[in-house]
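Model: Ready when you are.
Researcher: Fold this.
Model:
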Amino acid sequence: MAVGGFEGGERAGYSMTKSGLMHDFALPRPVAVPQACAFCDEIPEDKKMCRNIKTLFNFEPLATEQEIRASALQFVRKLSGFNKPSHGNAQAFDRAVEEVSAAARRLLTSLHTHAPTRDREVEAEKARERSKLRFG
């Protein structure tokens, strides 16, 4: 059973001792915690888990601030390896989410395409069909 975001297994790590020697130790394994996804509205709240970052460009209506922030959060989580950072890392983590959100917003507003805009409902239905084929 997971406690505090970690489960019983361990993984190896290394640290430097005061004398300059390498010392190996064990770290707890992180556990994935279900997170809400702006694209998963049909999934019950206790079953939501977003494992990948969704495309936000070329949809009608445009991506919301919540969707942009959710994708930035997933990106920072992936880069950092933290689902929720420690108190000491929280400020840097939050700053990174804000900076990535701002960069994503600038990117989305500066991109252009001649392709027709995609409909969110149609794309969501396609994703559900792919999921049924994949998971039964």
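Researcher: Now this one.
Model:
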Amino acid sequence: MASAHAEAFAELPRVPVAASPTCGGDVGAEAEVALVQTGDRVENGVRAVIHYDAGVYDGSCALTVTAAWTNLDTGASGSGPVNAVSTIDGHYGFIGYANTTFATGRGTVVVTFSSHPGAELTITT
């Protein structure tokens, strides 16, 4: 099992994926500390990010990855989808960038991505 030390940012290397029979490519994943607004409060949290590159940039290839998290200090956990389309952002040049945020609370948080079985990132919020 790959693991990163508890930091404010961690990333996993790109791995091959098959989003559909006609869309392959690769995806990288990262997690970082983020402030998350919940109602009228701002809470400690994590941003889960993927970068999907199918080699085709017309918007015809999309990938959904499930990001899951567990706060090792509180026992709280959750998950959610991260949906990316293999396009090139005309302003920043990002390829297939997508993210979601989770209000995890303070503590040591382990983040996993369905695209990277057996790998985990550890973030301290």
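Researcher: Key takeaway?
Model: The longest strand covers residues 58-71.
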